[in-house]
Amino acid sequence: MSVTAPVSVAGRRAFGLVCGLVALVLVALLSIAVGSRSIPLSVVLDVLFARDGSDSAFVVWELRIPRTLIGIAVGASLGVAGALMQALTRNPLADPGLLGVNAGASTAAALAISVFGLTDLRVFVWCAFGGAALAGVVLYAIAGRGGASPVRLALAGAAVSAALTGVTQAVILLDQQALDQMRFWTVGSLERAGWTTVVEVLPFLAVGLLIAFAMGRPLNALSLGDEAGKALGAHLGRTRLLTLVAITLLAGAATAAVGPLVFVGLAVPHMVRTFTGPDERWVVLYCAVLAPVLLLLADVLGRVMAREEIDVGVVTALLGAPVFLWLVRRGRA
Amino acid sequence: MSQRSFAVSVGLVAVIFVIGVLALGTGAIPVAPLDVVRTLLGNGSRITNFAVLDLRLPRVLIALAVGAALGMSGAVFQSLSRNALGSPDIIGFNYGAATGGLLVILVFGGSAFSVSVGALVGGVVTAVLVYVLAWQRGVRGLRLVLTGIGVSAILQAVNFYLIVNAGVADVTRATVWLTGSLNNLGWPQLWPPVVALFVLVPALLFGARWLEMLEMGDETARALGVPVEGSRVYLLVVGTAACAVATAAAGPIAFVALVAPQVAKRLTRSAGAGLLPAAWAGALLVLAADFAAQRFAGNLPVGVATGALGGVYLGWLLWRRR
């Protein structure tokens, strides 16, 4: 019994992951089919396998597929970034949007557009990294050494994002011409994502995800406390630095691609942990699969809920905030 | 009020007077400081009467009223939540007020007065919502703050949604309002906040005696005969009203409610709430920020200046308290 038990746990986790992947494929198909011009699922499948030059094929290949891919990539990034932040800060309320990391990236991107006139995604994605890293380091300086309570960290995050949002707002006011372009970064939307966005942002997200997966084991060790982690052979400084790098890459590139999204990284790790247990390797893996499911669902919901499309950033806030409030009420904070 | 608090208040008022005179004398028609004072005392020439009294005085007075309201509101909330970051702008009441104002601007296309009413209603509704959501056999300060953060995230999303889906002309008006601005305000816009303050200031000072006891903890306060939940609801209502009145008058001016009570606290070196020093500090902050934004930053909305100052202060606060 004691020998077979771990195997069955691993089997259960693997089975769950397969279920998650199936759900992701289904939601992706939904995301390709649904929109201001809905395309029947059978037609979607037809043009997926044979681009026949029809209008439907154009909509599917040029609009819906890149949008869906970006949704998957961004969802995975923010979900994993949230899991990493929660592990790193040992704080159940951590989320790159809530703690101001995404706001840091969007403020830097807005400054890049306004002050330096950069509109090339390839260039200002680096500015977004800078902003995300800066916000991350500030937050980590507050949270580091296990000193900050979840409450203080959540407060600090709210305060940092308020300050950064203010700066973005000021930039928008000063630069009326860039206003229209930057409204995009104040809310978070998949609407404008095209193939160029996919191609230019994907490498960063891939590297971030790889580092995240590699950090699973040392983060597990550190979850027992700094001393026990060290005894288990984890390098404290290296693990923290690499985790911060991964968070920066993931949150920065995701924000550069679609604007700042709040709450995507908050709820999924919690839901995942009730199934996988506290093993960070599985948590990260599950978040990479399930967070995109949620994000795509939010995006699809936003497309069908109202006559005018509702940006995904609004929907995720509307869906995510109740989860946050529930966590607060349950006293997890 | 301790001797030191009194001295600090006198000092703050003196600085306010100096900056006020400078602000009244600066602009397209420059007026020397002495002439400003002379004009204020009723001995001005026709041109200085026009520049100082008609053009600039209402703006200065609105800045003072708004700043004082925000300072007191911040002091109440920081004291209730026992946290320096628990100010109304962090926990979302002014996002709620902004939502109310934006709805009026963008959806109903209302006048300046109805924008104020919308902001007031939005702020109060948000406060009630946060309080109900945070209620769990009573409300503790920290849960209130965290609930406020969650609710403000929703409201921010709603605000952005409203802005993104509006026409460009409305968006510009809404964005300026949303940043917090005293531009284009005159005598007619002065009366609502001033009248509201005449009611709110006594109401706040009346509640202040509970505030100090609540800070000692619910048990102690109860033992001292404070009706804990009742007084907390009362303070939340008047504190929210003060914040909403300020937001209604000038839009949500960032960080004043957060910073002013802390400045006052450091100057008076007192642990308690110190509503009046916080009010003076708030008034001074808004006046100085508006003067600086007009004079040195090409007539930017005052909210941009307070946002920048507040950001720096916040970084320092967080760094020191880690």
From TrEMBL, chain A:
Q: Does the keyword Membrane apply?
A: yes
Q: Name one Pfam family in it.
A: FecCD
Membrane topology qualifier: Multi-pass membrane protein
Q: Which domain of life is it from?
A: Bacteria
Q: Where in the cell is it found?
A: Cell membrane
Q: What is the similarity comment for this entry?
A: Belongs to the binding-protein-dependent transport system permease family. FecCD subfamily.
Q: What is this protein called?
A: Iron complex transport system permease protein
Automatic annotation (TrEMBL), chain B:
Q: Name one GO molecular function term.
A: transmembrane transporter activity
Principal localization reads membrane
Q: Which InterPro entries match?
A: ABC_BtuC-like, ABC_transptr_permease_BtuC
Q: Where in the cell is it found?
A: Cell membrane
Instruction: Identify the GO cellular component terms for this protein.
Output: plasma membrane
Q: Which CDD domains match?
A: TM_ABC_iron-siderophores_like
Q: Keywords in UniProt for this one?
A: Cell membrane, Membrane, Transmembrane, Transmembrane helix, Transport
Pfam families noted in UniProt: FecCD
Membrane topology term = Multi-pass membrane protein
Q: Which residues cross the membrane?
A: 7-32, 60-80, 92-109, 115-135, 142-164, 190-212, 233-259, 271-293, 300-319
A GO biological process of this protein is: siderophore-iron import into cell
Looking at the record's lineage, which domain of life comes first? Bacteria
Report the sequence similarity comment from the record: Belongs to the binding-protein-dependent transport system permease family. FecCD subfamily.
Task: From the Swiss-Prot or TrEMBL record, give the protein name.
Answer: Iron complex transport system permease protein
